[in-house]
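Workshop exercise sheet. Pairs work together: one partner reads the sequence aloud, the other fills in the structure field after running the prediction. Swap roles for the next sheet.
Pair: D.N. / O.F.
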Amino acid sequence: MGRMIKALALALALATGATAQEADVPADDPAGFASAAQAAAVAGVGPVTSLPLPRYVSLKTSEGNARRGPGLTHRIDWVFTRAGMPLRVTAEYEHWRRVEDFEGAGGWVHYSLLSGVRSAMVVAEMADLHEDPASGSTVTVHVQRGVVVRLLSCIRDWCRVSAEGNRGWVIKTALWGVDPAEILE
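Structure field:
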């Protein structure tokens, strides 16, 4: 089946005037989904939702299959097992979203498994939650690497988060799931 899809993709590329070299279809992406994802990311907006690409979402359920392509017939490459985990959407195709986690692992996930509720993962060895968005403010709690926090708001360098019943401000560089220049109200 994979060879047939690759042959069809090559034939389509050649029919549109591309050379075989220009139609380079990687062996690990025979249907060209990575190329579609790259094109969408360059455009900066999702063709299905018209929302920005890339963008962050969270996993709605405690289990979500990440597939090689957008559809139930594609092989499962990865299983996300943590509800609330932040994911970055990099492409859209019909009811499917190409996502990746903080390590770059991922695949195509059905949109019903994703939520617009924003979360982030602590990527610093230890992150301090402060009373105020300032380095000199009182530290209320320390949060370890790998903890998923809920994003409440973000200003230039800080995000107000909720972590295991505690609320406070954490420096953005300690988190994955929010862009450095992103402001959340």
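Discussion prompt: Confidence is low (pLDDT under 50) at residues 1-27. What would you look at next?
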